[in-house]
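We modelled the chain as a single entity of 310 amino acids. Its sequence is:
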Amino acid sequence: MSKSSNPVDDLLWKSILEQTFAHFLAFFFADSAGIFDLSKPFDYLDKEFESLFPPEPNGKGVRFVDKLVKVYLKDSGEQFVLCHIEVQSSRGKGDLAERMFRYYYKISDKYQVPISAIAILADDNQSYHPSVYVKEFMGTILHYRFNSYKVLHQDEVALRTDVNPFAVVVLTTLLAIKNKNISDERLKDIKHDLYDEMMSRKMDKSTRQGLYNFLTYYVGFENQGSLAIFESEIENKLGRSNIMGTQEYLLDKAEKQGIAKGIEKGRLEERAKLKAEKLAIALEFKKMGLPVADIAKGTGLAIEEIEKLK
């Protein structure tokens, strides 16, 4: 089960966080039902976040998925909390704690509200688990602690017994870390296992579709045909065809992975194809209702190009 960070996976994380955010809160905060007023809609402040932290042009290396969300509290009227979530797929420069602090003080300074910050670490380094930023100079000490959740340190059995739908997201990520460079047949078995885990939990149709998208797209098959086989087998389980409507997207992602290998070898003729694949991916996510700004950030396409897609 081999995974590499790519724009599609970034967008999948953004999407699944929005589709499961109430479950996300319940997963990480045991008393969430008594704290948050879930009758009021969440406000995803992606544009506001990017105004504070503009993406670096032509940025390379580790990718970060940031979601800034306004949530209302039950006992505080119109008071709200801004939650920052970060998913890191590799260790990067090792500056996560400092970045988390920069996020905190800039968001706090602008909005003047309480902030709960959590970093979800999806790397495969057992010893890497930052949760504190400390800075000291001549008796002045800054000590900032944030919620830090290491996927690799989680217990697989506990995740399987957790009825919260977000547990399937974590389980998918955990199995991706633990099962690298396996055969398509073994990967297909894992995806079926994750699908069964998803179906055993209660959730609405939209959440179930989001989870299906995540477990299906998050790690790709090497062989394009394996994607179609997996989807066909899922259709057989359901007893009807095309229930998920994902086959075209799966094929698009498989093609993109093959094209990316060609680009790495310097094949100029593949660059035009890569652009076409980015446009195809952007169109699929546009149909899924993702914000144009998120799609542009994940694919590297211009907002104008995405807005023209139909």
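As a brief sanity check on the tokenised model: The chain has one domain: 7-245. Residues 269-287 form the longest helix (19 residues).
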